[in-house]
Amino acid sequence: MVRVRPGEIGLAERPEAPSVKAQPYRAAVLFLILAAVAFVPFILAPVNGSVSGTAGSADHPNGLVSAGPRPLSGGVVVSSDPRVVRNATNLIGDGTFDAIPGPWIYTSGTTGAVTASRDPTARARLGHTTPVLRFDSMDDVFGATPWTAAVSNQQSSSNLSQETAIRTEGNGSLKDDVIIAQSNQWAGAIRDDPLPWNWAGYDRLAIRMDKATPGTLWAWVYVQDEAGGNAWGLFSLVTGWYRYPVDLNTPLDVSKVTYVEVAFAGAAGTAGTVYIDDIVLFNSTAFAESARVAQTFTKSTPTGASPNSLRLVFDLEATSSSSVVANLEVTIGNTVEWSETPVAQGTRTVEVDLSGDTALQATGSFTLAVSLRLNRTGWEEPSMTAWIDNVTLVIPGTLARIAVTPTTASVLVGQTATFTAGGWDTDGNPVPLTVTNWSSTIGQIVAVNGTAARFEAPTQPGTGVVSATQGIIRGSANVTVEPPIAVVPPTSPWDTMLWPVFAMLVSALGAAGFVAIRRSANHAFRIEDLFLINREGLLIAHTTSRRDSHGDEDILAGMLTAIMSFAQDVFQEEIGGLRQFEIGNKTVALEPSEHVYVAAIGSGPIRNRLSTSLRDFLVDIEERYGDRLQWWSGMNEDLLGIDAMVQLFARRERYRCGDWKRHAAPGTEPKAVATPEGPGSAIHIVIVPKEPMRPL
C-alpha cells in the first residue's frame, strides 16, 4: 500500500524535526572536534632543535600577512608574505554564467543546427549533436524481433548465428556464413516485424559490416515500405569493420517502413563470412552556420598600448570534432581578438592580451561575442560542443609595488635559493613586470629568468637584501646566511611528561567519536533498491542490496508500479525537489531531473545528505547522457556505463558530482572504431539492375 505523508506534496518540503536518532551523530561530531582541538596544537607547535628563520612582520599595508618559516631545498628556511589580492575589476558582468536571466544573449544558428544555451552547470554551451535512433544493436538477433535467413534459390545458403566476441559495440553481432552457388544469386538476412516502423525525421541509415574472409563479396542493404516504395545501397565489402550508409530517399515512405534486408552476392562458388552490427538512423542534412553568446559592456577608463594593459581570460572546454570543421572565435566590436581552427579537445584557460586593439584603448560601449561555426563534412553523424566559463576582462592599474617572494629567507652558507617578483597596482591587481633588474647586498645573483632569480649564499654567515627593480619601483627580501651546523638545545622534561597524557586524551576522544558515528550510522537511511526511470516510465537501470533478491519479480513489479503511480501524480505539477512516500515499512525518496527520475527505497530517516546525493547523481546523468536520453529508443547500449553509475551510487550511498569519472573502470566509455582512410578508397560502385533482387 502506498501511503503519502501529510504535507509532503507542495511547493516546498518541510524539514523534519530533529529526532533522538540524530543525537549520536551530533555527539560524534562534538567528540571529533574536541579531539582535533586537543591534537592540532601539538602538531603545529615548534619542536626544539629545528633551524628557524626570521619571520616577517604582520604589520604590512594592503593586506600583507606573514607566513611562518618553511624549509626549501638546499637548507633554506623562508618566510613569505602571500598577499590577499582583491578581485580585479571585471568589465564583463556575470562572467560565470550564474545569473538566470543574465546579461548574456544566446543566439543559435539560422536553422537551429548549431545552438547556443546556458547548460545546467552554469556555463555557456555552443555546439551541435545529431539525434540518433538505434534500430538494431544486433545484441540479440533471435529475440522478439528476430532476423531470418533468406536466399535467392535453394543452391545458395545463409547460416545465421549470434556472435559475442567479434563486435563493434554492445554484447554481440550477427554472423552470416554464406555460400553463393552460382553467379547472380544471393544469400543474406531479413528482418520483417509485424508492425511498420516510423522513421520520420531521419534520412540516412548506417550499418557496420566486417568481411572476415578473403575474396570479393558484394552487399546490398534494402529497405521497403508498406506500399512497396524502397531505398537501397550496393557496396563492395572491405576486409574488417567499416560503416556503410544508405540514403532513405523517395519513393520510400520513412513513416511506414516494414522490411529490411542485408544480402550478399559474388561469383559462383563464393563462400564467405560477414559480421553485421549497429544499425542506426540519423539526419544527414548539411549545414554551415554559427551560434554565439554575447554581452555588451562599458569601458570607462582609457588604456594604453603597453603589453597586458587590457587582458581577457576565459575557461574553455571542447569535445573532439566529428564530421564537422569547427572554428571558435572571440570578437570585441568588429575585431577578432582570438580564434582557433580546429578547436583543440580538452579543458584549458585561454589568456588574450588586448593591448594592441586601438579601438579598445578608448572608452565606450563594446560587444564581446564568443562564436562557434560548424561546417558539416563527411556523411556520418556530426557533433562538436564547446563550453565557455569564467570570462574576465581586466584593466590592471599602474605598477605601484613589487613583491619579492619569499620576503625573508634563511640560507645555509654556500647554498642557493630562488626568489620571484610580482607587480601590483594600488588596488591589489596584478601588473605584469616587463624589465626586472635583480641585485643582492650579500652573496650573488647567479641566474635570472624573467621574474625569477637564483641567489647563491656566500661562504660566511651574514645578513643582506635581495632586490628586484623596475624603473623607480623596488621590492626587497631579507636574507640571513646561516652556519652549516645548528646547535640543538636539550629537550625539556615537560615534553616527555605531557605527550603521553595528551595522546591518551586524544585517543579517548577519537574512540568516543568513532563509536558515536557507528551508532548513528545504524539508524541512518540505508538504500536497499535504487531505480533510474525515464519520464515515460521506462526502467533504465536497477540495483539492489537485498540478499533475497532472486526470484522477486512480483516484488520488483509492485515497487515499479507504486513508484510510477506516485511520480505521475506529483511530477506533473513540474515542481522539483525531493519527494517521499511509503511502501509498507519502507520509505521511497524520489528526485526528478529533465529526462529521468531516481527512486531510492530503504529504511531509516532521510537526511539532507541523501537529497544532495540524489541531485548530484542526476546532474551527472544529465551531463553524460542528456542528449541521448532525449531520443532514447529503450536500448541500454545507447547508455553505455549507466549501470555502473547506478551501482556505484547504491554501493557507496553517497554521491558527489563527478564521482563516476573518479571511479570509472576501463571500458565503460564507447571506444573509437578504426576505419579505412575514406569511402573513396574502399567502396566501389558496380553496375546492378534498377531493382535489386528480392527473395522468391
Polypeptide structure, described:
This protein has 696 residues and is α+β, with helices and mostly antiparallel strands. It is built from seven helices and 38 strands. The strands form seven sheets. It has a six-stranded antiparallel sheet, with helices on both faces. Strands 2-3-26-33-32-29 form a six-stranded mixed sheet, with no helix packed on it. Strands 7, 9, 10, 12, 15 and 17 form a six-stranded antiparallel sheet that branches. Strand 32 and strand 33 form a beta hairpin. Helix 1 (23-44) packs antiparallel against helix 2. The longest helix is centred in the C-terminal third of the chain and has 31 residues, at 493-523. Residues 1-25, 40-71, 81-88 and 667-696 have low confidence and may be disordered.
Stretches where pLDDT is under 50 for at least 5 consecutive residues are 1-25, 40-71, 81-88, 667-696
Overall average residue pLDDT:
79
Distance between the termini: 57 Å
Biggest sheet architecture: 6 strands, antiparallel
What structural category do the secondary elements indicate?
Answer: alpha+beta
Which band does the percent of strand residues land in? 35-45%
- Shape, principal axes of CA atoms: extended
* Radius of gyration based on Cα positions: 35 Å
Strand order of the largest sheet: 1-36-37-38-34-35
Number of strands: 38
